[in-house]
Amino acid sequence: xxxxxxxxxxxxxxxxxxxxxxxxxxxxxxxxxxxxxxxxxxxxxxxxxxxxxxxxxxxxxxxxxxxxxxxxxxxxxxxxxxxxxxxxxxxxxxxxxxxxxxxxxxxxxxxxxxxxxxxxxxxxxxxxxxxxxxxxxxxxxxxxxxxxxxxxxxxxxxxxxxxxxxxxxxxxxxxxxxxxxxxxxxxxxxxxxxxxxxxxxxxxxxxxxxxxxxxxxxxxxxxxxxxxxxxxxxxxxxxxxxxxxxxxxxxxxxxxxxxxxxxxxxxxxxxxxxxxxxxxxxxxxxxxxxxxxxxxxxxxxxxxxxxxxxxxxxxxxxxxxxxxxxxxxxxxxxxxxxxxxxxxxxxxxxxxxxxxxxxxxxxxxxxxxxxxxxxxxxxxxxxxxxxxxxxxxxxxxxxxxxxxxxxxxxxxxxxxxxxxxxxxxxxxxxxxxxxxxxxxxxxxxxxxxxxxxxxxxxxxxxxxxxxxxxxxxxxxxxxxxxxx
Length: 484
What we know:
Layout: H1 8-28, E1 40-45, H2 53-68, H3 72-79, H4 91-103, H5 105-111, H6 113-131, E2 136-140, H7 150-170, E3 176-180, H8 189-207, E4 215-219, H9 225-241, E5 250-255, H10 270-275, E6 281-286, H11 288-294, H12 307-320, E7 326-328, H13 350-376, E8 382-384, H14 390-424, H15 432-448, H16 453-456, H17 463-468, H18 471-483
Parallel strand pairs: 1-2, 1-8, 2-3, 3-4, 4-5, 5-6, 6-7
Helix pairs in contact: 3-6, 4-5, 5-6, 6-14, 7-8, 13-14, 14-15, 14-18
């Protein structure tokens, strides 16, 4: 016999209030999205944009890779991949090692792990640069474009709209794409609005009201919610005026000022900025160098890994966790471009070739380390500014996923079994978010080409379950099958 003090009538108002609060929390924090997030955003000047720009960038990136890392060992050593120091140096030994790995990849994975990792990453990077070299592209009317006469920017804005429409028709655009306009500051907001109007109007006129898949407008140097609200309102008007389906155009906010982190009252600004977007904000991108400069950090110390940059990243991260808004990290501004150029009349000397190699490898290493820093902080997307950075972006991302693959496979397998057993026995399993996070690791890895669907199935999760993208559905399916 048990005796309770509280009746249903006693508890009703308390539980109703609790239920309302929980519902409000669920509305504000619906959970991280399980749809694909690109691993990078490539920026390029609007004056240079063509519908096939992404494919051309992939060709440049692949040629750069082959010129400065003609095989997997050179690439691994340049980047400092795990175990790269154990790999051979001579071309004969490298060719022999490649043949051994290729003959039995599964065996090499266990007996020659560093070599397998370097070989697999190099091979998958080459394939990626040919198949899908750019995941997200931003046609830039800001830093990568500069300040130009109004008639010149007008013409470029119209041309960008037409090229985007041509890309839709030809099916050659990256899976994610958008434009970056000038900031909505007192000095440049009218120019930003005009460019936005011209580009969207030209796009809709040439495409019959269609916009590319996953299309966004990037607003740089955001400081106050009213700037975001203004862009959201303008997009709503432009959609209505041009026969574009409502809500088709998303927003990408650039968090690159201290005021976008903490406002004049000392309050966290990030969520206020996102809410001002009327549900259109899909990304918030952190800008390292503008942010650190505005924090009065001198140029020599304005690095990707500065503690001030990590502080901003963490504020951005905790502010948007569970909201469904993705976060993106900043760029490496040191470009992998050699100082010497060859001509027909004057080929490079051996010394000049060596200097070019040293400069490119040094820039590669810096970019690789910066990306690894971002990934450790759970920033799975970042900026690339030059096609020569593309091989390094994918190498860093692929290495990250492959070196964590075995551990993540075991954890997800155990987690699914434990959750299914709890469901089957009628107990509550309250770590579904953790399970979804483990599943997201594989969804991210497959989407970018880091891991294969076959490798992901080593978790015990089926291909159908993976493609369902839901941990809860996997658990419910497993529990149901055990009861029939």
